[in-house]
Amino acid sequence: MKKLDDSKFCFISCVNDDFFYDECQLYLQHLNFPQGMCGEIVAVRDAKSMTAGYQAAMEASDAKYKIYLHQDVFVVNKNILHELLMLFRHNPRIGMIGVAGATTLNADRPIWWESNSMCGKVYSKRYTEAIQLESFGDFFGRFRRVAAIDGLFMATQYDLPWRSDLFKDWHFYDISQSQEFVEHGYEVVVAGQEIPWLVHDCGVVSLDNSYFANMEIFKKNYQW
Do 101 and 147 meet the contact criterion of CB atoms below 8 Å apart? Predict the structure, then answer.
């Protein structure tokens, strides 16, 4: 097993749009690093799927702390690395941290944003040109344990394989990876944020047939 460097963060994105990714990197380059820590930025291009791209990047980096984020995510909390490091080091059972998710998933449609137990928040440009707050549910405390997090931002302190054998395009990689961590005995959590850590410039996302095909694959392979 590869020895991981606990003084390093790695920021990983699958990239097909440099207009967004250039801005994403600009925010990453202005983050405040904890003392003694360093970072690297890895862009995965021409990935066959999100799981395949993330798997390749995970294997290529020896950073203990890996942050998988969409190319259109801008990290506006300059102290986010301090926040993540504190959560991970004080809670070794936490395997993965997100900013939005749900504590339970529906049996028929295990889609986190259709759950009645959502939590987290993010600044978004989903429906308008102006940045707006999307709040999915506040909670007390530094984190809340969940069944799944959204894939816009997924920070890990342990490496687990991404299920590229099951999910061969761009959907359900996040919910499946959440369940992988749970099944391996780790906790998946949404971080407590007084003010959102991120801006997501995603626009309106439509769900196609591929999304629901991957949902059926998830249902056949996981118990949640």
Answer: yes
